[in-house]
Amino acid sequence: MISKVILGSFVVSAVGMANAQKIDAKAQKIDAKAKKILDDITANYNSKKNSYFKFSFGSGLNGQVTKTEPGIYYVAGEKYKLKIMDTEQIFDGSKIYNINADDMEVTVAKPNGSGTMFSPINYLTTYRNDYNVTYNGKKMINGVNADFIKLTPVKANGIQFVYLFVDSAKKQMVKLEQHGNNKDVAVIAIKEYKENQQLDPNMFVFDKNKFKNYVITEL
């Protein structure tokens, strides 16, 4: 089921963009041009009250995507809500709620600082400490002449490399690809982007009363 794939891909860290640590230049190799592009995008997103992404999530093996599902992602500061098919994930600023409608199960956990959330913007922060960064020129992605940036882990973390494709003119992410050491691939291609919307005040709140028939497990 796609939900099982997703929950395996979305290993969460509640490290907000605004809380990114300083770069350790001695431990990393970060291309200056790539750094400026990523920092410009980060500053753009941080300047917004909230952001919304509609995207397609693809997964597969040997670099080939074999399954694609639509997804949506809301983020405001550190809080976020992500949904793909029948799987939903909410971070309310304190706890992470993984909601699986197929299994009628909710798992609740504190954020794990050593993990990484695979989202439309997570690598804008994790690159600062965990990856070597190179600028690889331009590549046409969905009609956008995007800047192509490659991230390679400084330390082994199960990921072989990550490709980021960026619309530098709009300071927005277009697509990201995560390639694992076990030859699996996960891809997010952004289809629509909105900012500074009037969101429901309970957008990032987990309402236990809505899941009375679910098994709720607190880790």
Offer a quick outline of the entry.
This protein is mostly beta strands.
Write the topology of this structure.
Elements (H helix, E strand, L loop, with lengths): L1 H8 L22 H15 L4 E11 L2 E13 L2 E6 L2 E5 L4 E5 L4 E5 L13 H8 E11 L2 E10 L5 E9 L4 E9 L3 E12 L19 E4 L1
Parallel strand pairs: 6-12
Antiparallel strand pairs: 1-2, 1-11, 2-3, 3-4, 4-5, 5-6, 7-8, 8-9, 9-10, 10-11
Helix content: 10-25%
Mean pLDDT: 83
What share of the residues does DSSP label as strand, in percent?
A: over 45%
Indicate how many domains the architecture comprises.
1
Write a structural description.
The chain is mainly β and 219 residues long. The chain contains three helices and twelve strands, in the order ααββββββαββββββ. It has helices at 2-9, 32-46, 123-130; strands at residues 51-61, 64-76, 79-84, 87-91, 96-100, 105-109, 131-141, 144-153, 159-167, 172-180, 184-195, 215-218. The chain has a twelve-stranded mixed β-sheet. A hairpin with a 5-residue loop joins strand 8 (144-153) and strand 9. The model is unreliable at 1-26 (pLDDT under 50).
Give short descriptive properties of this protein.
globular, signal, disordered N terminus, 12-stranded mixed beta sheet, 12 strands, outer membrane lipoprotein receptor (LolB), chain A, mainly beta, plasmid, lipoprotein, 219 residues
